[in-house]
Design brief:
The protein has helices at 2-21, 63-66, 80-83, 170-175, 293-296, and strands at residues 24-29, 40-42, 49-52, 57-61, 68-73, 98-104, 109-114, 118-122, 127-128, 130-133, 135-136, 139-140, 144-149, 156-160, 181-186, 193-200, 205-208, 214-219, 224-229, 238-242, 250-252, 258-265, 273-280, 286-291, 303-307, 310-314, 320-325. The chain has 326 residues and is mainly β. Bound molecules: 2-acetamido-2-deoxy-beta-D-glucopyranose (4 copies). Keywords: Glycoprotein, Signal, Vacuole.
């Protein structure tokens, strides 16, 4: 009798654990003809989020009932009739291309990197991005790429992927192994931009830690992620903390770990790259790896973003936001 009860309990436990560990994946479809979401920024209270798409718009997702609404753009002469619905391949100067973005929660300021127009900010009313910086140390940004806000101070860390190649010359920058990218800091108090680190090989992702002691920066071309210490003499000391190929954006979790969107070499073919998200802690120890091949095929993700226990996934190669739960 007793053994039977225990057996039943064990069975029940196994049943429940499979239920609990079940993976679910759903899609939040972008509006008709919209595609290429590159980055995500969440509002804490509402869970609404912002994303930048291929036709130059910054959209805001306002929940399942309202869906996406137009929120902003960085191209001063952008025309909706000319630009809305344009395809990733036609990414243009006229329409703009918002890539990285991050929200400063206390002030509701959305900091944005537009690949053509540089680093800027939007208030809660949206509209045209107020460009704050287009060059540093005499070198214009060719591909302002990703943004991270240190919430307590409002300081913003951002990257310029290359001082030579713009987003339309991305393939060339890969073939020549460009390493002219930079990590920059926007000081919220003085409004000054300073170069913190140079000679990065396509720094496409950045995330600052809660105490502003270090930033993680991914190098897409060099296939590595660095931890750059924000103290000591410049150039700052840095350590390689992850070597997944083709890393993209990096996003901090509320517990102080980081999700990196990256590739993983397929064991079977030994060459194909599979889209993955990898969670590491501040020391670079891998905590979890999530394989996204089932839903993305060989299309790499640009961002894996933990919000409210779910992973939200952006990829410039698709027309939806993935929501992964486990
Ligand atoms: C926007 O239009 C104005 C007026 O035609 C022009 O001077 C300016 O160069 C244009 N800017 C861009 C980025 O196309
Ligand atoms: C949207 O896509 C449809 C179908 O691909 C196409 O017929 C239509 O012209 C597109 N609209 C815009 C504004 O690009
Ligand atoms: C960066 O690269 C330039 C050009 O190759 C070189 O002159 C410079 O010393 C490098 N800087 C650092 C900090 O490595
Ligand atoms: C980075 O990884 C990709 C994909 O595995 C590979 O094709 C490329 O040669 C690597 N780049 C470098 C600089 O090692």
């Amino acid at each position: 009798m007793r053994t039977k009860t225990i057996a039943t309990l064990i069975l029940l436990f196994y049943f429940l654990s499979t239920v609990v560990s079940a993976i679910s994946f759903s899609k939040i479809q972008l509006p008709r003809n919209a595609s290429g979401p590159e980055s995500l920024a969440f509002e804490f209270g509402t869970g609404h989020f912002f994303t930048g798409i291929a036709d130059g718009r910054i959209l805001k997702y306002r929940g399942p009932t309202t869906g996406f609404v137009d929120f902003g753009f960085a191209a001063p002469n952008r025309s909706k009739s000319m630009c809305d619905g344009t395809h990733p391949a036609s990414t243009s100067l006229v329409c703009g291309r918002p890539v990285g973005m991050a929200l400063h929660h206390q002030t509701n300021r959305l900091y944005v990197c537009d690949a053509f127009f540089g680093f800027g900010v939007l208030g809660p009313e949206g509209g045209l991005v107020n460009i704050l910086s287009t060059a540093a140390d005499g070198k214009p940004y060719r591909l302002c790429d990703d943004v991270s806000v240190h919430q307590p101070t409002g300081n913003v860390y951002f990257t310029d992927a290359s001082a030579v190649y713009n987003i339309r010359q991305f393939k060339t920058s890969i073939s020549v192994k460009d390493s002219t990218g930079r990590l920059l800091k926007y000081n919220a108090e003085t409004k000054q931009v300073t170069v913190l680190f140079s000679n990065l090989s396509c720094p496409g992702g950045v995330a600052v830690d809660d105490r502003e002691k270090f930033v993680l920066v991914s190098e897409f071309i060099a296939n590595r992620t660095r931890k750059i210490w924000l103290n000591g003499p410049k150039p700052y000391k840095s350590d390689i903390v992850n070597t997944r190929p083709r890393p993209g954006n990096i996003r901090k979790t509320r517990s102080g770990d980081f999700w990196i969107a990256a590739g993983m070499i397929d064991r079977q073919t030994q060459s194909k790259l599979l889209p993955t998200g990898e969670k590491i802690n501040a020391n670079g120890n891998v905590i979890e790896t999530v394989n996204l091949e089932k839903w993305y095929g060989s299309k790499l993700a640009s961002e894996v973003h933990m919000f409210d226990y779910k992973l939200y996934i952006a990829s410039p190669l698709v027309d939806f936001i993935g929501v992964y739960e486990h």
